[in-house]
Amino acid sequence: DVLVVRVQCGVVLTACGDRRARLWDADSGECLRTFTGHAMSLDSAAFSPDGQLCVTASRDCTARLWDCDSGRCAATLAGHVDEVRHASFSPDGARVVTASGPTDRTAKVWDAQSCVVLCDLYGHGDEIMSAHFSPDGRSIVTASYDLTAKIWGGLGGSRGLCLRTLEGHEAGLLYAEFSPDGEAVATA
User: Burial of 183 by CB count in 10 Å (0-12 exposed, 13-18 middle, 19+ buried)?
Assistant: First the structure.
């Protein structure tokens, strides 16, 4: 099963239950690269803003940064105690946010160069299914099975600050993302 598809500059990035991510030529359908190294299935994949790197999130409790040109693993982000459900880059590509499963229930902000955790986001009551930076990179929105989305700030400290909890869904959330202007949040 292919779980995630992302398109950037004529290249398609997919993440799959077979523990691999792949880059595809959008015109020809040819597989350009296969990213191999995770021990369990993948739940998400995303390009860096410049398209040089991609990040994958796996049920093996890690996220990995990959060089899109060579296909080599550039770094492993290890620090969650449960499956990593989602990972994405900040708009400037300097940071990565990861979201974790039902035991961990945290999101972590990582420095994309040093792979050090910069900030932990605690407060959800169930697994976090997605995490995205705002367009200006100053906030993060997370979506959780606890029926809420949360908007986080204070990303410069060791622990982020929940600025707002968005409630109203009657089932667990799978996804939340800021609008392109950062003025609204879509949840599902």
Answer: exposed
Q: Give CB contacts under 8 A, 24+ apart, made by 25-34.
A: 33/68, 33/71, 34/71
Stretch 53-67: mean pLDDT, rounded? 97
Q: Which two tokens stand for residue 26?
A: 């959008």
- Burial string for 41-69 (b: 16+ CB within 10 Å, else e) reads bbbbbbbbeeeebbbbbbbbbbbbbbebe
Read off the pLDDT of residues 82-124 as tens digits, 9 standing for 90 and up. Answer: 999 999 999 999 999 999 999 999 999 999 999 999 999 999 9
Distances (CA, A) of 179 to 21, 132, 134, 138, 176: 27, 11, 8, 14, 10
Backbone phi, then psi, for 94, in 5-degree steps? -80, -20
Q: What is the pLDDT of residues 119-141, one digit of tens each?
A: 999 999 999 999 999 999 999 99
